[in-house]
Amino acid sequence: MLYEIANNxxxxxxxxxxxxxxxIYEPTVRYRPENKQNLIRYKNLIKxxxxxxxxxxxxxxxxxxxxxxxxxxxxEMFWVNMYDGLAVLAAEGQCxxxxxxxxxxxxxxxxxxxxxxxxxxxxxxxDRYHVLGLNRKEFMLYEGNMYGFEEVQFExxxxxxxxxxxxxxxxxxxxxxxxxxxxxxSTIFYGYDDxxxxxxxxxxxxxxxxxxxxxxxxxxQAQLPLLVVALPEYYSLFxxxxxxxxxxxxxxxxxxxxxxxxxxxxxxWSAIEPLYREKIKKLVERxxxxxxxxxGSDDIAKVxxxxxxxxxxxxxxxxxxxxxxxxxxxxxxxKEGNSAGPLVDDVLDDLGEMVFRNKGNIVVLPKEExxxxxGVAAIFKYKM
Length: 384
Prior knowledge:
By secondary structure, the protein is an alpha+beta fold. The chain has helices at residues 37-53, 59-74, 117-123, 162-166, 195-222, 232-241, 261-292, 300-308, 347-357, and strands at 4-5, 21-27, 85-91, 94-100, 107-111, 129-134, 139-145, 148-151, 179-181, 187-189, 226-229, 247-252, 296-297, 312-318, 325-327, 334-336, 361-365, 376-380.
């Protein structure tokens, strides 16, 4: 296959070194009959890319560059199930495709670097979270952001029910009398009077299993807030036994299996949104304090110099805004650009990519949440 469907960001394709770097973003439709427009729009976008490349590259080279993009267009099965957005990155014969849970602004760019700002916005940790739905019989884990969430796919063979986790083959065994050894070595059979205590014991064991699995396989690496959706009694027990430092106090105290996905999404975001708003508020305040001490700036040229000098701790970038031009990787100077050229670049995206490569913090925000009107706000590591 000439393209790869990716679920994680960043991807190794970002390490490609030879231009052109092709970035395509398309808002898509999930349902029929409107979803037939998805492929039509994509074909129009790759035609724009091809027309742009014709201004600089020979026909034979263009054919090679465009091959994976046309292969994607020809794959009928790919277009059957779509979400709300599509992102395609292509360079050096590689092609990576993202099916996105949120719409993106339509864009097709061939440039000297990838346009990754929309992907940073979607995959950034500022509004991402894990949701753990559980009861005493089973559990599910989701990952999402303000736009929606999807079920986390566990490794094959991972226990998902109390029977699988505790090795109890028969559901009835969970409430049936069970033999236990006495201190004298004889066997004691506990009767039904002990049923509630046995159920509580099994539930606690099951919850400890869930807690360990979620932390070791997911929370420790992603470091996202973990919100529990469960009946009050199960939430209280899980909170009591959990050792996951990313578990938050907020919870949705209902049985997750009783909710539709849309209802679950609304209830979860109602619980998470105040945390997100507070995080952004503190970040904006931090920028204001840094700027007052000459440890921050919203001047694009100054921010570009800081990025070139590896001097950016955190950068805020305005979503969907494009500043034509590029940052010279050898000097940090901004070179003006125009949309008529064969390779179109975006200064803001270059800044985001530079900070990203240097392990800085990047937060992409909508215009109304930005603390400046230039499209960028940066907090420096030291005074310039």
